[in-house]
Structures are given as structure tokens and as C-alpha cells.
């Protein structure tokens, strides 16, 4: 009955999808545990209890057959002569299940010859879910009475499935069916414009502009967001005017109003000029601006210090709110993610400078990445975010390590500070250097180039 | 010339956008799970199928980036173990309209924990156009609770640019010194 401990199993009620995955397992990692056979040869039946009709199927098997069942289900299933394997399935749980079925089968054979009284104690041998420690004597009433039936734990080393995985189902095997897949003959380098970027130090747009005109526009925008200031030293920050005071700008008022709006959950209307306003909608985290925040007028409003009384904050009444709602509905393109609006406002204000709360004696670490898919991009934003997540450093260190102009790092520092994404640390800067090229740098660069360049798609 | 093969793995619950995302950046049409699975059932040749999504990006010099999507319906860790071999990183897509995205986040980060710690994960939240809450900040908090730190982005899996941002964040996280100028 037992050939080399490989169980003959038949899959009954089971979805094609799960069947395919199990077959895949039985052909590789699990090939020393199970062999799939037709039902009439099977020593055990595998039933997906979450599949329609499975309960009836189990009843039928239980009444007509003596073989144990392996029940796979997301729920805890407690059935006689059956072993429950919890989903998500694991290699270990299936290996344990195979072992337990072997034991049940041994019990069953023994029962043929043991007195009825002993058999009775195991007739309802409902087993605990597998994945829990290897059979305790409580699980197996019969072996406890008969030491000959001690589980053959050594027949399935716990590590076996893993090694099968690496030997039998290599990455190559998985890849094989697709080797013949049609290769695109689009050569990205031949379809792309030769060199689009005009300013040497500005690279890595989120997606490379598709024409020179776009590229010029992009460069102009980046000059607005990150300024054009040359590098400086920590000692000369003030002298070189690399620090700005948010309170002198629209940004200060807007941040204050945002904090209030978020705290109270109320809608705030911030008048930024006599006619124009930003509506802060903290509940779904939106901002509606009557001015296009990517336009020149808004940029000017952020870049120049405000005059006293220029900005005032209003809490709309219910009637006003209804009117504003209607207006917002009609102008959906001026509805922004609140954080994205603050991000752009801060960048425009900063123009590549650090804010007044910047502490040169501290290091900083990026706690969370900005939501870059919904925020305006600046050059090098990805490498700055990645590096600053990995180490506490000053903006000077980051710029130096990446070999990029400081203004991009300063702009990033300001914008992430106001979104509370940066964390100040006392610790001395770590001296991790990224100049040492990592293993896959070349490949990653080529992949990025391909994706950003447009390539085949 | 030796052929380079690397894998990026996409995972997440049913309908979170894995197939769509892979399709958005793959050179070939995504090979779909179901067709493969049923083919396999008929032919009984398991090695010819993978029961998962598959996409491919071929670079010059025959370098290949394989894109794999785990089956979302059921979770089989032995499939995942095979899947992650040679993987450079994990893209976890979560559907914001599902009843308990935190549970989903917990489930998948637990299942891939070791891989995430060795490599890198990037999280994309889909369907935020249909359901704004939870917001990105909540996902940040949840990751923190789980002792993890990973980039989280709102994405629409149908938007190629969004999917590219996920891959960019993955590559830069693995090597902040990478550059498109090289
Ligand atoms: N509205 C909206 N629809 C989306 C978004 N992302 C993906 N979809 C759609 O969601 C549906 C499901 O996406 P799939 O790519 O099939 O999801 P999947 O993760 O492969 O699902 P399974 O294979 O079943 O696990 C598709 O119709 C997509 O077009 C999104 O951000 N917003
Ligand atoms: Mg899919």
C-alpha cells in the first residue's frame, strides 16, 4: 500500500485554478509526497471545502470509502477521518498532511486486526489542523496505545520541500514556456530623441518629455520650483540667502489654515487675493484652488512675500458651502490632493532654499516617501527620497553623495518638512557612501532609461 | 554574451490591478493565469505552466526583466517561494475599496516578510479614485505598526506612468545611486 511513502491522491471537488496550482506542486516540490492518481487507485482524496458541492462530495466519500480525506479550506474544518489543511496552503502543511494521512492509513490497517474496543477509540479520529506541531499522541489515539505505530517523522525531513523547490523547479523552468514569446523588435534607443535635456544637471523626470518644447517648459518649471541658486556651505547659508521664512509668504498662512482645518475637520476658505481662494477640504484631503496652481499667477503669489492683510481666512457658512460645492463640481480640474497642493506651494516658495526651522546641527531622515505619483516632480526626487530613507544625513551630505546641486535637495527638504515626512535626528550622520556602484546598477539604469524613454509602449 | 534575467514580483488581493499593471509595462501581452491553468489541467504537463501572470521587458543585449503576478484568488506559499527566487523586489498592490485594506497589507507583508527584508517592497494603492479613504498617511501608519518602511503611492494600475513610478521607486530604493545618465 505504501510505496516509498508517496501517497496516491485524487483531487475531487476543486476549482481548475487550485487544481492547477496543486498539480504544479505535486510535479515539483511535492513529488516525493504525493502522486496524483484516478479516484479508484487513491489512498486519499483532496477536497477543496470552499468549492461549491464539496460538502456533499465529502459526505459521499465518507459513507462509501474508507480512505482519509485531506480537506483544504480557509475555515477550521472538523470532520472524521479527515485532515484539515488551512489556506493559505504551505509546503510544510502539505508535507505534514501527507504524513498524517500515512498514519491514518497505518491505523486503519491495524484496526483491521485490533479488537473492536481499541478501534472504537480512534473511529472518530478527527485531527487538528496541520501546520501545528507534528502529531501529538492526543491526535493519534491508536499509536499511543501501540508503540509500534510511532509516527515515522524522519521520513519527511522538514527541509525537504525547500530543497526540492530549488532543485526541481528552477527559475529557468518557470521561464521556459515564455522563452519563445515574441520579442519586441522596437529598439528603444533608435526611437527616442537623442538628447532632450538641455541643462546638464537636471535629469530624471518622472517621464521624459516627448519633445524639445516640452523639455524647455519642464526646465523652466523646475527653475521655478527649485530655483537657480548655486551651492553653498552650512556656514554661509544665511549670508547666501539660502534660508526663507515661511511666515513672510502665502505658505505660512496656508499651513496655519491647513492645520486648523485638519484639526477641526472644517472647510476653510483661504483668500489668497481679492478674488482668488484656496478651499481646504480636510475630510477627503482635497484642496480646491480657483487659480491653477501650475500657472504663472499662482507661482508669483507664492514666490513674493505677502503684504499684511493680503491673505484672509474665512469659514464658509452652510449656504456658502453648498454654493462652493456646486462650483467645485463644475471645475474639477482645479481640485487637487491637499498634500500635492501644499507640496507645490512649498516648492514654489522655497525656490531651492531651506526653511527657517532648518537646524544645521541636526541630521534628518525621510520617515515616509512623498506620494510621488500625485505630486509635482522635481529633478532627482527619487534618488533623494531613497537615500534619505536609508540614512540620517544633512541636506549637504545628500547632495554631495548624489553628486547633485544642493537646490534640489533643499527644495525636497522644505517640501517634505511641511508634509511632516522628515524626521529630525540628533545622531551624527552615517557615513554610508553610495559612490560604490551596487551590483545591478548598470542593469537598473538601462531598465529606467527604457521605461522613462517610452520604448516599445 | 551571457543573458541576464531578473524578476519583479507583483502581488496583492483579487482585483487589485496586478494583471493590469504588468500589462502596462510589459513588452509582450501578459500571459494570463486562467488560460495557462486550464491548459495545464488538460495537458497534465505542469512544467509548462505557472498559474500566474507573466510579463517581460527585454533590454538591449538580451537582458530580461520578468514580471510575475501572484494569483490573487488563493494564496499558496510554495508558489510564492518559487516565484520570489531571483526576484529583485516586490510590488504590493492594494485595492482601496476592499473592506479591510489593513488586513490585506498585514497578510501580504507577513507572507513575503523575509523577501521584503532582504530585497525591497513598494506599495501601490489602487482605486483611490473610487474610494479616498483610507489615505496614504494611514498606510504609512500601518506599515510603521508592522515595523516596515516602504514607499507608498496612490496609483491607477491602468496608468502606465503610475506603474513606472512604482518600478522607479523600487530601483532607486535598491540603489539610490542609480542614474538614467549612465
Ligand atoms: N477605477 C479603477 N480601476 C482600476 C484601477 N486599477 C485597476 N483597475 C481595474 O480593476 C480591474 C481589476 O484589475 P486586474 O488587473 O484584473 O486585477 P488583478 O490584481 O490582476 O486581479 P486577480 O487576477 O483577480 O487577482 C481591471 O478592470 C482594472 O482596469 C484603479 O486605480 N481605479
Ligand atoms: Mg490578474
Word description of this protein:
- The complex is a heterodimer of chains A (457) and B (182).
- Chain A has 457 residues and is of the alpha/beta class.
- Chain A folds into three domains: 7-121, Rossmann fold; 212-347, no CATH class; 356-452, Arc Repressor Mutant, subunit A (Orthogonal Bundle).
- Helix content of chain A is 41%, strand content 12%.
- In chain A, strands 2-1-3-4-5 form a five-stranded parallel beta sheet, sandwiched between helices. In chain A, strands 10-7-8-9-11 form a five-stranded antiparallel beta sheet. Chain A has a two-stranded parallel sheet with strand order 6-12.
- In chain A, helix 13 (338-350) crosses helix 16 (406-418).
- The longest helix of chain A is centred in the first third of the chain and has 21 residues, at 91-111.
- Chain A starts with 6 loop residues before the first strand and ends in a 5-residue tail after the last helix.
- In chain A, 40% of the residues are buried.
- Mean pLDDT of chain A is 76; it is low at 113-209.
- With 182 residues, chain B is α/β, with parallel strands linked by helices.
- Chain B contains seven helices and six strands.
- Chain B has helices at residues 18-25, 33-43, 77-84, 101-111, 113-118, 136-145, 160-174, and strands at 5-11, 53-58, 64-69, 87-95, 121-126, 152-154.
- In chain B, strands 2-3-1-4-5-6 form a six-stranded mixed beta sheet, sandwiched between helices.
- In chain B, a hairpin with a 5-residue loop joins strand 2 (53-58) and strand 3 (64-69).
- The longest helix of chain B has 15 residues, at 160-174.
- The relative contact order of chain B is 0.18.
- Chains A and B meet through helix 1, helix 6, helix 7, helix 14 and helix 17 of A and strand 1, helix 2, strand 2, helix 3 and strand 6 of B.
- Bound molecules: guanosine-5'-triphosphate and magnesium ion.
- The site of guanosine-5'-triphosphate has 16 residues of chain B, from helix 1.
- Residues 12, 14-20, 72, 126-127, 129-130, 156-158 of chain B line the site of guanosine-5'-triphosphate (GTP).
Amino acid at each position: 500500500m505504501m510505496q516509498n511513502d508517496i501517497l496516491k491522491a485524487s483531487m475531487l471537488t476543486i476549482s481548475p485554478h487550485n487544481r492547477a496550482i496543486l498539480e504544479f506542486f505535486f510535479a515539483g516540490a511535492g513529488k516525493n509526497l504525493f502522486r496524483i492518481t484516478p479516484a479508484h487507485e487513491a489512498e486519499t482524496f483532496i477536497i477543496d471545502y470552499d468549492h461549491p458541492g464539496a460538502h456533499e462530495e465529502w459526505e459521499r466519500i465518507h459513507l462509501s470509502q474508507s480512505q482519509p480525506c485531506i480537506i483544504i479550506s480557509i475555515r477550521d474544518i472538523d470532520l472524521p477521518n479527515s485532515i484539515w489543511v488551512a489556506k493559505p496552503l504551505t509546503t510544510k502543511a502539505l508535507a505534514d498532511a501527507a504524513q498524517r494521512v500515512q498514519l491514518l492509513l497505518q491505523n486503519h490497517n491495524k484496526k483491521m486486526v485490533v479488537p473492536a474496543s481499541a478501534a472504537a477509540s480512534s473511529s472518530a479520529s478527527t485531527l487538528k489542523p496541520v501546520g501545528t506541531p507534528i502529531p501529538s499522541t492526543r491526535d493519534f489515539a491508536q499509536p499511543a496505545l501501540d508503540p509500534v505505530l510511532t509516527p515515522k517523522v524522519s521520513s519527511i525531513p522538514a527541509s525537504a520541500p525547500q530543497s526540492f523547490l530549488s532543485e526541481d523547479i528552477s527559475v529557468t523552468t518557470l521561464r521556459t514556456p515564455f522563452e519563445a514569446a515574441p520579442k519586441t523588435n522596437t529598439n528603444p534607443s533608435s526611437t527616442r530623441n537623442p538628447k532632450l535635456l538641455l541643462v546638464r544637471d537636471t535629469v530624471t523626470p518622472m517621464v521624459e518629455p516627448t519633445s524639445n518644447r516640452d523639455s524647455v517648459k519642464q526646465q523652466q518649471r523646475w527653475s521655478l520650483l527649485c530655483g537657480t541658486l548655486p551651492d553653498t556651505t552650512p556656514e554661509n547659508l544665511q549670508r547666501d540667502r539660502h534660508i526663507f521664512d515661511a511666515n513672510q509668504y502665502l505658505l505660512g498662512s496656508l499651513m496655519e489654515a491647513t492645520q486648523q482645518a485638519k484639526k477641526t475637520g472644517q472647510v476653510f476658505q483661504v483668500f489668497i487675493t481679492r478674488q482668488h481662494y484656496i478651499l481646504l477640504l480636510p475630510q477627503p484631503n482635497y484642496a480646491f484652488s480657483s487659480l491653477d496652481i501650475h500657472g504663472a499667477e499662482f507661482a508669483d503669489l507664492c514666490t513674493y512675500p505677502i503684504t499684511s492683510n493680503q491673505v484672509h481666512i474665512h469659514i464658509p457658512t452652510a449656504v456658502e458651502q453648498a454654493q462652493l460645492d456646486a462650483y467645485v463640481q463644475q471645475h474639477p480640474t482645479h481640485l487637487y490632493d491637499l498634500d500635492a497642493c501644499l507640496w507645490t506651494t512649498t516648492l514654489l516658495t522655497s525656490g531651492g532654499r531651506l526653511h527657517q526651522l532648518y537646524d544645521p546641527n541636526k541630521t534628518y531622515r525621510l520617515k515616509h516617501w512623498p506620494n510621488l505619483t500625485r505630486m509635482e516632480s522635481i529633478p532627482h526626487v527619487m534618488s533623494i527620497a531613497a537615500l534619505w530613507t536609508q540614512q540620517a544625513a544633512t541636506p549637504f551630505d545628500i547632495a554631495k553623495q548624489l553628486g547633485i546641486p544642493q537646490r534640489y535637495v533643499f527644495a525636497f527638504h522644505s517640501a517634505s518638512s511641511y508634509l511632516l515626512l522628515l524626521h529630525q535626528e540628533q545622531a551624527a550622520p552615517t557615513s554610508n557612501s553610495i559612490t560604490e556602484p551596487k551590483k545591478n546598477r548598470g542593469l537598473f539604469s538601462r531598465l529606467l532609461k527604457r521605461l522613462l524613454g517610452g520604448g516599445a509602449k | 554574451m551571457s543573458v541576464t534575467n531578473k524578476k519583479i514580483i507583483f502581488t496583492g488581493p483579487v482585483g487589485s490591478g496586478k494583471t493590469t499593471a504588468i500589462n502596462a509595462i510589459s513588452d509582450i501581452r501578459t500571459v494570463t493565469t486562467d488560460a495557462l491553468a486550464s491548459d495545464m489541467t488538460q495537458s497534465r504537463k505542469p512544467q509548462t505552466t505557472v498559474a500566474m501572470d507573466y510579463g517581460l521587458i527585454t533590454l538591449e543585449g538580451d537582458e530580461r526583466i520578468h514580471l510575475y503576478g501572484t494569483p490573487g484568488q488563493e494564496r499558496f506559499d510554495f508558489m510564492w517561494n518559487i516565484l520570489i527566487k531571483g526576484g529583485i523586489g516586490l510590488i504590493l498592490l492594494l485595492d482601496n475599496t476592499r473592506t479591510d485594506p489593513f488586513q490585506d497589507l498585514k497578510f501580504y507583508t507577513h507572507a513575503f516578510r523575509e523577501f521584503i527584508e532582504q530585497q525591497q517592497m513598494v506599495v501601490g494603492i489602487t482605486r483611490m479614485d473610487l474610494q479616498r479613504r483610507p489615505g496614504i498617511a494611514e498606510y504609512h501608519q500601518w506599515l510603521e505598526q508592522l515595523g516596515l518602511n516602504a514607499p507608498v503611492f496612490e496609483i491607477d494600475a491602468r496608468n502606465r506612468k503610475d506603474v513606472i513610478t512604482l518600478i522607479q521607486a523600487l530601483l532607486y530604493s535598491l540603489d539610490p545611486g542609480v542614474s538614467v545618465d549612465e
